[in-house]
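Whether sequence alone determines local backbone shape is best considered at the level of individual chains. The sequence in question and its structure tokens are set out directly beneath this paragraph.

***
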Amino acid sequence: MMKIYDTDFNFTGGLLTCPLTRRIVIHHRAGDGDVLSIHNGHLKQGWSGIGYHFYVRKDGSIYRGRNIEKIGAHAEGNNSDSIGICFEGNFENEKMGKAQLESGRWLIAYIQESYGKNLKVLKHSDLSATACPGKYFPFKEITKASTDEVVSKMFEDGIISLSNISNWELFLSGSAKPKADYIKTIIRRYQKKVG
């Protein structure tokens, strides 16, 4: 399990409680820097403090911004029912590294699990006329359930059992013969179910 670092920022004014959370909105910072610099920048703009609920750095570290129970300030007109995640970097001109990608995937899964339901995951550009989170942002990869998550779900649902786990391990390692197309079909079905 990854760690989320608490920031304990002081916010000016009162933050409103989010009545219902239905969505996760993905952003990029369009630059580099720590979470405190975002908080201070948002304060200078006259906001209560950092508008994002989470910030994922290039090294994979995850920082809490606003409490997820509070309404964010990250996607104008769409804040009252969403959680904002910001990723360090400018994905209009750079690609995301593995550590940041894995942390982002874990964080989305963690939020989904915390709410006990699949929240819709959107790019900021799905809601506003913006390039955010950038043309090189790996949206499909970051929102797709990992093979490990899919296999865990299949094990829970009885598709994989202790008696046939070695066959699945062979398939997932790439050692199985291509005849196992039905396995690919089952995996795709479960990826849709959990992804």
Residues 4-143 form a domain with the Lysozyme-like fold (CATH 3.40.80.10).
